[in-house]
UniProtKB/TrEMBL annotation:
It catalyses: L-histidine(out) + L-arginine(in) = L-histidine(in) + L-arginine(out). Keywords: Membrane, Transmembrane, Transmembrane helix. Belongs to the laat-1 family. SMART domains: CTNS. It is found in: Membrane. GO terms for molecular function: basic amino acid transmembrane transporter activity. This is Vacuolar membrane PQ loop repeat protein. GO terms for cellular component: lytic vacuole membrane. It is a multi-pass membrane protein. Residues 123-155 are annotated as: Disordered.
Amino acid sequence: MASSALSAILKSLSLDLTPKEALSGVFGSISLATWVFLLLPQLILNYNTGSADGISLAFLAIWLLGDATNLAGAIWAGLVPTVIAVAVYFCFADFVLISQCLYYNKVNATRARLASMASTESEQSPLLSRRRSSDTFAPPNSRRRRSTGLSMNRRRDSATKFFEEPGETNPWVKNTVSILGIMAAGAAGWAIAWQAGVWKPTPEQDGDINGAQMAVGAQVLGYISAVCYLGARIPQIVKNYKEKSCEGLALLFFLLSLMGNLTYGIGILCHSLEKEYLTTNLPWLIGSLGTMVEDGIIFLQFRIYAPKPSASAVE
């Protein structure tokens, strides 16, 4: 699939399309495909575990604000349709993920409250009633051991769902294949769009077509968006540090974020390196390439806080 996409791209090059324009389109298309699939791993993980405790709602809320200002700034600046389409889709996807997290948080909070009430009622029940239970002849600490064991088993099952899916021996292999497949789909999608006439190269001089006043307003929104993107991951990093765990987070979610930001920035740089063009797109470059550093910190946390095999073997 990757080779056919590459051959289609090479065949698409002609006198009407320079290699630089082609690379800008290819990386932009790959970025678009990456953003489309970005939130799916986290949505699926939340659904499988029935919980959203691992992800910070502050992270998602600030990210949504960044996407909203990014959309407004992209429309104002008259950026390429791909950028605007990504911004619209991502605002919708953010809303879906936040709604899912709020739902699971509410459901699990209700269950915890009901369990606490049941536990309180059980502790206040008559002593004779307790002695008639099936645990009458059990050793004094057996019930505590049993409940603790069940709790530990639940934690292990949850960790197993996240780190070792059925039939998978190495999640990194699955993640790598997923990323390569998305890249190939994005490149092939661009080639098809180019051949069909749907995608057309944007002239470099269109970077400031809206005039100085419009560009200034769009850049202000762009910088606000960049600040939101850079600050959004901080609550998640702090949460991971406090809990000393990344359980409940989909690693593929952050891998796709890294890939999407990288290809997005490369797509902008491949289009033009003119000073005015780079100045116009500087906030979007900061927002995309700058967050890669913070994604790197989260990858490091995945490594540091990964469950130790020796710890799970201890009874």
